[in-house]
Amino acid sequence: MRFDVLGPLRVLEGEHDLTPGPAKHRTLLAALLLRPGRPLTVDRLIAEVWGEEPPASAEAVLRVYVSALRKVVDGIRTVPGGYLLDVDPDQVDAYRFERLVAAGRRTRDAGRTAEAADDLRAALALWRGPALAGIDSGELRRAHAVPLEELRLTALEERVALDLALGRGGEVAGELRALVAAHPLRERAWGQLMLALDQVGRRSEALGAYREVRRLLVDELGLEPGAELREAHERVLSGGAPSRTVPNETPPDIVDFTGRERVLDWIRRSVPPAGTPPVHLVLHGPAGSGKSAVAIHAATALDFPDGRLYASLRARTPGAMLEDLLRSLGCPEGAVLADLDERIRLYRSMVSGRRLLVVLDDAADEAQVRPLLPTGPGCLTLVTSRSPLSGLEAARACEIGVFDPGESVAMLARVAGERRVRAEPQAAARIAMLCGGLPLALRIAGSRLARRPSWTLEHLAGRLEDERVRLDELSAGDLTVRSSLALGYRALSDPERLLLRRLGALSAPDFAPWAAAAVLGAPADRLLESLAEAGLLQARGLDATGQERYGWHDLTRLYAAERLADEEGPPARALAAAAREILDRTRRARALLLPAEPGSGQTLVRTAEQAIALETTQLRESARRLAVERGFLVATVADFQRTGLDEAAWRLAFYLTPFFELGAHREDWRQTVDLGLRSARRMGHRHGEVLLLRSLADLHRAEGRLTEAAEALHRALPLAEAGEVARIRHRLGLVHLAQGRLSEAGACFVACLAAFSAAGDQRGRADALRALGGLRRAEDLLVRSLEAYRELGDPRGEAAVSFDLAGLHVDQRRPSEARQRAERGLGLVRRLGDRLPEAAGLVVLARVALAEGRPDVARGAAEEALGTFREYADRGGAAQASLTLAAAFLDLDEVDGAVDAVTRAVGEFNALGDRRGLARAEELANEARRRRGLRI
Among residues 581, 342, 591, which one has the least CA distance to residue 331? Predict the structure, then answer.
């Protein structure tokens, strides 16, 4: 099946046209086709099909449209929250077009001009009219049709440029006439028309075209022709050039240059062949990353017959740089005109017939670079900058990042000496890590070692360990990391400097704009973009919630922290200003995961409608927000604790507990609880200590460390207030239950149920009813718990009890009811995106399948659950899944598989101290032993 959107929408299967008739069906299909294999939310699709004012029934109608399209198109799949079209992107002409354009450009860059022109011609042949013609969707047109049309025009101009380089001016002149008639303000097309006409000897027509477009631009836009068009005019007027000199100005290569093979290969492959359009490359990255070294090393190895120009830009003006470059090209001093525009025209005229390499080092912005770019065929420009110079037209950029560990040690060895580094490999790796792979820092560290033969690498690594003096240590002669960073800092505006130093209060490796706004106390999006442009931050791309994330080098962070301390005082002040926003966001996200205010015992009752809405949107979004911010929030707990913001530290640690539990992020859980406990104890906050001891007990119980869990709860009991005692005893009951101490567990649950009921704590009552019902195998108690969770609007609680009831119905030989309960619970947890509860539900569903006499189905469900439990390192869940899998193998008469599975289950239950699970596993092991006739 083939799908065409480059023109009217068309669906073809062989010779058959299967294009849907209704307009809205075509719009929905186009929306899916333009992002094949990518999930699209229902909200996104509604906006693209109906625009800003969809009907109230849009979601239901959308399902009808999807159902209708499935009769025509295979591969439309339902995913959580929306749909996706599972087709090969190459079945969609827009993706084939983009792929062919990219292939043509690669072929062009490799110097195969004729082949590149053919590739681009094949790409353009896919178009049958305007993109998405007949599709009535402003959203789709803005997001997809407009960029596709622009790429089409750009590809056409690129193909024409290749044809002109091949001397095919006569073949493209007519095509260019049509192009400028359709797009009269595209200056590049006019310039190409002039060159095509001149190429076939029609010079007067070429000059007439220039007069026509100049009049059009002045009348329509009030602008004179741009640089490219003026250059075409000058080339038509005269092919002559001033007398030539062959400059060779690049600085000497660096003796101990290390690595960067990927970047050097990219530069080598980007060199334009003679007669093809010039290429401009931007090497960008943070201070000290070695951008200039790469550019100079590359330049010295490239052969350009008409010479190499070099300019160190820094804060110099384009006019001053042009004066130097013109003299380097042999322009007499008296011929260098004062007017900037005249200098630019003279420069471009002088380089138009030369094949030059131009290195523009340390550029501040696009405006500084544009006038200096050579325009002659076959020229190459290497620009270095902290910014990617995204606004530099027709330039390609490559980020010069830090070295990986191997490259870092190699550079250290080149500077300090191979023998010394080989003698202390572990210390060398530590130095490389503490320098963060930054070439400047590594060069300084190596230089200090080279100048001090008596120093060991271990000694220098020890000096670098202390963050407070690391920047002091990274100084050798006139090389200092601090001064390199200071150059960038001084070039910032006051608001940019304020944000950068405030960010120095954070130790997180990356952060979102909301966190930057919190420390700044004002919106920070534009400032973050500016800092990324300046090379002091790195834009890391969009996270799962659609926000741009920013990171930075650790040495930049230390410099920002220095500036904060020097200019504003201790970091606690900046962190305190951000604490409220950080805590509020995390508390709100937690409140969506749990239907009760953290630690209060007060229940937030939701209506059924609210619960449904939360199941499908807010709960999943809450978990997603916490997931993307996990690293930031864990680091922030440590920041709060380190700077004495104890209240914020213990509260943030506590708010994160349910997220860590759901995602099985146990190391993060352990670290934050430990820090939170220290803060709560330091400030003497008994309630905070109780809540975190309770969290610690939950962690120990999840890990199967039941003795430690009981100890944590017993430490919390004497500190707890009345309302919290029942919650602690409830958890003690769960620990007793796992230890097989059923009478103690029952006593805890009965006492808790009475306390929760008396206090009106509906959440606690639901939890206690579930625990007691599970212990007693009492359906009435479990049903009451289920009803309580439903009243709370707690889909997670409802799902958990549904699984409990399903297991009970299996034991009571009621498989039909068990399946209904299990499938209801699975539906809930899948909508929430909870992987571990889903795995638990699959184990229950496997038991149901066994009761129904379908062991093959049971085996599949148990194996899927086991995979998830292993992925999350959940040993208790893995034990339950292995036990169920063993039962399925026995029913399938695959005794060896059963023996392996039950052996794993016995080992896990024994390690966890789960006596009840161990007893069930040993029963199954005996059956497997009987079947195989030997002892396990």
Answer: 342
The C-alpha atoms of residue 804 and residue 844 are separated, in whole angstroms, by: 8
Higher pLDDT residue, 247 or 31?
31
Q: Which has more pLDDT, 736 or 908?
A: 736
Neighbouring-strand partners of residue 359: 310, 382
| pLDDT above 50: residue 527 | yes
CA 424 – CA 873 distance, rounded (Å):
36
Question: Among 3.40.50.720, 3.40.640.10, 1.10.10.10, 3.90.1300.10, what is the CATH number of 2-153?
Answer: 1.10.10.10
User: Residue 824: what pLDDT?
Assistant: 93
pLDDT at res. 782: 94
Angle at 856 between CA 854 and CA 862, to 5 degrees: 105
Q: How far is CA 841 from CA 360, 819, 845, 851, in A?
A: 62, 11, 6, 15
For the chain, how many residues are written?
936
The CATH topology of domain 261-399 is Rossmann fold (3.40.50)
Sign for the CA dihedral angle at 731, 735, 738, 742 comes to negative
| CATH 3.30.505.50, applies to 167-237 | no
Instruction: From residue 361, give the alpha-carbon distance in Å to each of 248, 315, 443.
Output: 15, 11, 20
Decide: 484 and 551 in contact? Cβ < 8 Å: no
Tens of pLDDT along 652-704? 999 999 888 877 788 899 999 999 999 999 999 999 999 999 999 999 988 88
Fold (topology level) of 484-566: Arc Repressor Mutant, subunit A (1.10.10)
What was the pLDDT predicted at 317?
84
| 620 C-beta neighbours (distance < 10 Å), count | 18
**pLDDT tens-digit readout, 322-344:** 888 887 887 655 556 667 887 78
> Which of 189, 239, 237, 196 lies closest to 217, judged by CA?
189
CATH 1.25.40.10 assigned to 831-932: yes
For residue 141, the 8-state DSSP code is: I
Model confidence, pTM: 0.57
Q: Encoding tokens for residue 192?
A: 């190409």
Cα–chain center distance at 271: 32
* Contact of 608 with 790, CB cutoff 8 Å: yes
Three-state DSSP class for residue 549 = strand
For the chain, the first-to-last Cα distance in angstroms comes to 55
Mean pLDDT of the chain: 85
Q: What is the identity of the amino acid at 584? A: D
Residues 6 or more apart whose CB falls under 8 angstroms from that of 867 comprise none
